[in-house]
Please model this.
Amino acid sequence: MNLLCPRFPQRPALVLDGGEVLSYSELQQAVQSFKVHWQARELVFLLLDNDLGSMVSYLSVLAAGAVPLLLAAGLPEHALRSLLDRYQPECVWRPASRQSELPGFETVLSQGGHDLLRRRQPVVPQPGPLHPDLALLLATSGSTGTPKLVRLSAQNLLSNADSIAHYLQLDEHDRAITTLPFNYSYGLSVIHSHLRVGASVVLTRLGLFDGAFWPLLRQQQVTRFQGVPFTYEMLLKLRLERLDMGSVRSMTVAGGRLAPERVLQVHQSCQAKGIDFYVMYGQTEATARMAYLSPAQVGLKPDSIGRAIPGGQLGLIDEQGRAVSEAGKTGELVYQGPNVCLGYAESRADLQLGDTQQGVLRTGDLARFDADGCFYIEGRLHRFLKIHGVRVSLAAVEQLLERRGLTAAAWGVDDRLCISVQAPDDAGLPALRDELAALLNVNRSTLTLYALPELPRLDSGKIDYPHLSAVV
Amino acid sequence: MSNKERYDQVFEKCFSVQPSVLDEKFVYNCIPAWDSVGHMGLIAALEEEFDIMMDTEDIIEFGSYTVGIEKLKKYGVDISA
Model:
């Protein structure tokens, strides 16, 4: 698969934060020459950051017809080990700073601050061939080390990138800047949608609180900005209304719910600057994007996710699986489109599977729609939170604690994970909080731990979650 | 309580660190807790503690424990006192 737009070979494709520019033809050349390091239909773990090496490596794996699992450069070692055991990749490409010995692997290439490790011996017994439609693997949860993966095809990637580029009206004059992790479906969708139309991307590891980020955004004349709800919390803290956004002409939020009053605040600041603000909705299972609310409607319906993206369809089903056709009634949100993943994987053997979703995704979100056909998320069927854009399964957190011999209940709201631990007192909690923050790869301030002598339970023996939040 | 004590306590509480680590080497990203999420919490806590509202540039440039002392001077908060 080749993601790169062929129409503008001399236009810039990538801008590095030192100011170096790579044209499409230069990037294409770099990808072609790096391609020799991969073999078609092998499984490769890529530990990525927003830098040139990561970009060339990722694009060349796709071009070679190998299948990458995208992971964060800073993935905790224990999570990497567990994924290695489960999926048995042929190669691992990682930052050279990660020096740990990976049993069975040897370093075959060290270049540009990265090491390529390859298996000394083929895996025995040899795993079955990767399904021919499988192009890319993403993790459903960035943090708990939940080993469940989403299987994506080339068609998933290309159709979603093209749909996003279409509704955002991206063209070759646009320029994005990385503000999200490379391996995160939303961050990846920004890269894909820009490179498909001949636009450029500024690659930087700088964050919003790094002093050098803002001059870079302005000097490089970035036109497109994206973030998760927490990014917008940061922008509002930085007094967005007074912040010089340079050449930015659109801003998008996705990856969780931004409170309607915040949406309005951002919208108003954007309007004053002549910037279009899009509220969007998606999941990794849909490659990235499923719905968006057009800037003209954000001021009127700040609590809505809008309508399906071009090429997709949104609908609701009731508990019996029947279509909900009445405005205002709640049902499970179901999406259909060419960007719905092939399915999940929980083992290497699952990578032989073809399309098990058939273009239909039950989102697990409860929603309603209004008379105009705009959708509103009301809650979730399943127990998970988003912490700064990262999905965290509450059940997985509880299981993780159980493996440490603790009885605990996880609950809370987005960006705030609460854990009630069955314990006589809170003596061990500060240490546990630090440990959990490291394991889940979230900031410790997002975790609140409570000690309870006994967790409240229903007659059925199940944990009484509403009661849990009431007692604290 | 002196301003210095109040300033230190905000850091200790936000990042759960001992006062002994608070010096010119205590900078943004030096510990996992002081990432962008921690930075938001720190700025909000300082603004509340000293009843001030910091400017964009000062929030971005607030890159260390020591730089922070300089930044707060601008808002009439003298930490050395």
In short: Chain A touches chain B through 24 residues (CB under 8 Å). The mean pLDDT of chain A is 94. Chain A has two domains: 12-378, 384-471. Chain A is about 25% helix and 30% strand.
